[in-house]
Write a structure and sequence with these properties.
Layout lengths: L1 H6 L16 H27 L7 H10 L3 H20 L25 H29 L4 H14 L17 E12 L5 E3 L3 E2 H9 L7 H16 L10 H20 L8 E13 L15 E4 L3 E2 L1 H21 L1
Helix pairs in contact: 2-3, 2-4, 3-4, 5-6, 7-8, 8-9
Length: 334
Amino acid sequence: MDAHDKDSDARQGQGGPYGQDVPDGEAGAEESGGSAGSAGSAETAGSAGSAGSAEVPEEPVKAAGESGESGESGESGESGEVEGAVAGGVSASGEAGAPHAARPPEPRTGVAALSPRYQIGAVVALAVVAVAVCAHMGLVFLHVAPSNTLTKQHGAAVDEWVFPEFEQNWKLFAPNPLQQNVSVQVRAEVGTADGGIRTTGWYDLSAEDGRAIDGNPLPSHTQQNELRRAWDFFVATHDSENRPVGLRGSLSETYLRRIALLRLDREPAAAPGGVIERVQYRSRTTNVEPPSWSGEKVSGRPTLRELPWWSVSPETADAGAGAAGKTGKGGGAA
């Protein structure tokens, strides 16, 4: 038997499951059946994938690969499994694969969501704002810059734009910032009802503003800056003899007189029947004490600056005319 097995043309492994020999024709049929079975199983798996199943069953494909005894049938089983999985996962038709459904466009936001007409309007508005900001910054820069050709030729236009709302100064960032406390005081001469003249005491207007600001989380702009800015305006436009320099000096005097009348009327400084005739300002300047670790020595003696008496008849006349005008309008309406 061994010699016959070695020398004969009979194929090895053709025996059935119990070792019986199978004729060559039947063996070929079995091989063909194995290959055909594996190919059919692969096609079946591919068809299952092309039908749109999410997962390709692996057991039938493996069984088809195991049913073929030869390596050729095993390769056919593996290729069928891969083709079926690819076909089932890529496309519902089992062919090249159809593209995914197109996503809806994202909604536009901001300026892009506006119509063309409104987009043009928004662009024009932004351009106008940009030009205005650049012009404002340029004028403020010319105001704080050293004297130059532009400020000499167009200084009046720059001042008209900057004063009084956008005035800039360097006191906070100067090499020597303000190190003094300035207290502004005022008193008045009051004409009494019997024809006499009475002089009031000094009213500390700066202290009144300080008491209004202290403990107030939202103090008014008037309490913080009105008196301080008015006094700085006066000092900047007057010489050491309290004489005005230019038209702005006269304007600063008028401003201080009106502030004095408003503040004295709140007290009230004039008794019933009295009229304020003149007012007088003075300032009391005290140096701020340096810190303990500093070796700087400053004088603690206050410095007084007393201004001459100013008549307030123009301001009281304007106020009387305004009151008379209101009364006349009321009478005419009645």
